[in-house]
Amino acid sequence: MFSSFAPKSVPEISAVSLNTENIAAALAVADRCFPNPQDQSFLRGHWARVLAGNATYFCPDDEAQLTLLDHFVYTQGGEVIAFGGLYRHDAQPDREWLNWFGVDPGYRGHGHGYTIIEHLAGVALRRGSSILVGYTEECEENAGTKRFYVSLQFKPTDLYLFRGEEVRLYERKLKGDT
Ligand SMILES: CC(C)(COP(=O)(O)OP(=O)(O)OC[C@H]1O[C@@H](n2cnc3c(N)ncnc32)[C@H](O)[C@@H]1OP(=O)(O)O)[C@@H](O)C(=O)NCCC(=O)NCCS
């Protein structure tokens, strides 16, 4: 449990590292969160690297050397209801980026998204990182994700080229004035 991260009342969920026993349930939730087959394939590639311990690699989608960090599944009553992870651009050691995260559609709107981002922010801060970065495409379909970032104190910053498409970065300071 990590209720200490939450200044308001949110449902209690538990974080467990992504592993060979929970990945099937996590993938079922992830596929409901990201119905696009290209997204599903990309996420599977990341998670396969996480489980293989093959964390550092050149990612052609970002055109950068990345290191995959912690990846979690979040459970309630033993059931996987959400997932999320962190990675780093090796050229930017003080920043951690949110990897794929999502809350199973039937569990949304109850603060779980807030809780998992606060948990990931705490993990990044304890590792000494200064900034947490998320991103989303600027299309109407993703307006909810944009509002989600803003409500969690992320600020929109630069455009970033991902898979050859511009996406908007959202950054949240974890400490200091960097
Ligand atoms: C984005 C997502 C994780 C939010 O999960 P959630 O459990 O519904 O979020 P919460 O209930 O914790 O909401 C947190 C805050 O964000 C806001 N918010 C969440 N989803 C929103 C939406 N679609 N539109 C507007 N605001 C939204 C909530 O109103 C709340 O703000 P408040 O505290 O000011 O009331 C979930 O919608 C999701 O899994 N989406 C699909 C996957 C995705 O887009 N992932 C992000 C990119 S990798």
How many H/I helices?
Answer: 4
The major pleated sheet works out as:
9 strands, mixed
CATH superfamily: Gcn5-related N-acetyltransferase (GNAT)
CATH secondary-structure class: Alpha Beta
Describe this structure in words.
The chain is of the alpha+beta class and 178 residues long. It has one domain: Gcn5-related N-acetyltransferase (GNAT) (Aminopeptidase, 3-Layer(aba) Sandwich), CATH 3.40.630.30. 29% of the residues lie in helices and 34% in strands. The protein is globular.
Features:
alpha+beta, 29% helix, 178 residues, binds coenzyme A, 4 helices, Aminopeptidase
Quick structural gist:
The chain has helices at residues 23-33, 37-52, 112-126, 143-151, and strands at residues 14-17, 56-59, 64-76, 79-89, 95-98, 102-103, 131-136, 155-162, 165-173. It has 4 helices and 9 strands, in the order E-H-H-E-E-E-E-E-H-E-H-E-E.
Topology:
Elements (H helix, E strand, L loop, with lengths): L13 E4 L5 H11 L3 H16 L3 E4 L4 E13 L2 E11 L5 E4 L3 E2 L8 H15 L4 E6 L6 H9 L3 E8 L2 E9 L5
Parallel strand pairs: 5-7
Antiparallel strand pairs: 1-3, 2-3, 3-4, 4-5, 4-6, 7-9, 8-9
Helix pairs in contact: 1-2
The structure holds coenzyme A (COA).
